[in-house]
User: Which sequence fits this backbone?
């Protein structure tokens, strides 16, 4: 199928003005103005976007594709994420993680779920391991998982400063990082350690110590949930000056809570004058968002939604933030971090992943790998068992 999208106000993520896009199969093959009429025998389908804003598909770098949770017993295991739950929120690329439960849920299952989403039209990759040390793997080691399994990009989410973690020592953390780094080198992948940072008092001290006491590049360490406490957020911003990329989580924040909502956190980071490429936003979709009492027992829980990314982006636009300022954290930055060269931008040779925004900044239409998955805010393609 050949698709011609006319009159798009294009952000790729840099603003390009009014442009037309030609899509063949799963690829953007031309972007520009003044494309001559195409032969009708080609079967080109044209869509006039009427000047609506078109952005690259969102890249969600932290999704519990198999479902998360389980901290309060088997009945609290969150179900797996479904296709339209991702595309309905403008997500066209998802990176799967395991969390607390890396016993029943495994990297092999995670890879399989990612492959299923690929079959349904999404782009998906994942991490090996989970919260605990030593990391659970599919082939026996982090390095061999990276080298031998095409969909595995790194290891994570390894938990530190959290009562649910294995309380990893410096030596254990360094061994994981070294294996991820070398495995990434051997496979041509990101080779990063995606770190779940809990709300424990040590904060990012384990990461600083690992950087200080090894030759491993700081960019191997990728802390997430850094906006869960305001002081932790300040620590994370300081780490970006050493070469780390930090990940902001789009989880709900209550009034008076010692945390930054994702949109406010992103603006604070950008206002600080730090490198704009070293920050990303993800959803924690499919994950359990528990609150614990003083003895570490679950007092309440919510579930992360992939749609939180699009909601955060819309909120930023409604607050007056320029789209071109905040969009890279949802698109180009995670693509760069994860070495996904065909993602995060819209130019000839890029994957045909795009989102059309309505006048309010909400998701209207979504194309993933050249196929429309959402039209007029409603899914037109659903997962196998939806």
Assistant:
């Amino acid at each position: 199928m050949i698709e011609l999208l006319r009159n798009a106000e294009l952000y790729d993520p840099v603003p390009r003005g009014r442009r037309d896009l030609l899509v063949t199969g799963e690829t953007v093959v031309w972007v520009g103005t003044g494309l001559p009429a195409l032969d009708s025998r080609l079967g080109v389908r044209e869509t006039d976007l009427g000047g609506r804003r078109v952005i690259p598909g969102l890249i969600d770098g932290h999704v519990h594709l198999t479902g998360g949770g389980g901290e309060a017993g088997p009945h609290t295991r969150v179900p797996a994420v479904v296709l339209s739950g991702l595309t309905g929120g403008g997500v066209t690329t998802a990176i799967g993680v395991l969390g607390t439960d890396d016993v029943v849920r495994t990297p092999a299952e995670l890879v399989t779920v990612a492959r299923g989403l690929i079959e349904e039209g999404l782009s998906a990759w994942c991490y090996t391991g989970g919260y605990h040390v030593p990391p659970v793997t599919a082939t026996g080691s982090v390095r061999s998982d990276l080298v031998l399994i095409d969909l595995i990009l790194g290891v994570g989410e390894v938990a530190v400063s959290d009562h649910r973690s294995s309380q990893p020592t410096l030596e254990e953390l360094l061994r994981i990082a070294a294996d991820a780094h070398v495995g990434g080198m051997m496979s041509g992948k990101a080779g990063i350690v995606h770190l779940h940072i809990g709300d424990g008092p040590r904060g990012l001290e384990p990461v600083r110590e690992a950087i200080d006491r090894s030759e491993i590049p700081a960019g191997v360490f990728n802390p997430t949930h850094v906006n869960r406490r305001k002081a932790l957020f300040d620590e994370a911003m300081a780490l970006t000056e050493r070469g780390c990329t930090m990940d902001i989580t789009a989880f709900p924040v209550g009034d008076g809570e010692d945390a930054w909502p994702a949109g406010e956190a992103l603006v604070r980071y950008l206002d600080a004058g730090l490198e704009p490429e070293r920050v990303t936003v993800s959803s924690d979709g499919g994950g359990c968002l528990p609150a614990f009492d003083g003895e570490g027992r679950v007092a309440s829980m919510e579930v992360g939604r992939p749609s939180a990314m699009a909601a955060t982006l819309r909120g930023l636009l409604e607050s007056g933030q320029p789209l071109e300022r905040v969009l890279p954290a949802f698109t180009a930055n995670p693509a760069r971090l994860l070495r996904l060269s065909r993602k995060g931008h819209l130019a000839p040779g890029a994957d045909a992943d795009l989102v059309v925004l309505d006048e309010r900044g909400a998701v209207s239409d979504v194309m993933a790998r050249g196929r429309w998955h959402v039209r007029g805010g409603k899914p037109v393609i659903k997962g196998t068992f939806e």
